[in-house]
Amino acid sequence: MITKTLSGVVIAVCAWFIYEHTYGLKVNKHTFKAPNELNEPIRIAFISDLHLKDQDSDFHRLDQIIDATKEFNPDIILHGGDYTGEDDNGTRLLKPRILKGIEPLTILAANYGILGNHEWWTDTTWGQSLTENGIELIEGNSKSIFIKDTEVCLRGLGDAFTGNYIPFGFHDDCDGIRITLTHDPLAIQQDDESGLYLAGHTHCGQLNIPFMDPVWSPTNASIEFLCGVGFNQDKVWLVSSGVGTSIVPLRWGAPASIELITIR
Fold it and tell me: pTM to 2 decimals?
């Protein structure tokens, strides 16, 4: 009897753990130091791998993301790709709802984004659609923006997983904070520019066995680039677990998350 009860408790705890990691939302807060002194901190919301599917639970969580982002009051919102979680036909049908769903974010602050592998696979008009709906596609481009009188040099690298990573540097007169946005963190490992890098794609392994490296992750990047914060002499990087799921609709040990960043 005790054994059966204990087994039931273990199963219930595991089920709750999987449910929370898959359908919940972890709001991670990070603080990074700017290379130069700032008059005021700069706040950045980084949202990646929404993988939105045609189900109300996904859009309910998107509302939670919007609420958490609004409370943070970011100066800029960056999107790391993989907005869709559907195949070609499903994406064509769901795309208007996805764009409508993320529209409230464009009211909160300036939005910049790149494409993920799922955009490259499903619809060639994603870049145009995002820009028309308030998320400027920064992929393949470098530009300066000014936030609270501080120059931020923003650069978007193509997705390495789909062969779209093409290295290029920041513009020559960049004297501000350097931020690089990309999808597959392999580009972080291969790129030679300095600054802060933001990526997603890996889902931090999505299904992880405790005390072991991820069983599988869709990247050729080394283990230190698969998840979380890392740094070397010239770079600091943050690889987000992202929000949605891919292939298997479950998460274990890699909770769905968004990243709220303060640069001081």
Answer: 0.94
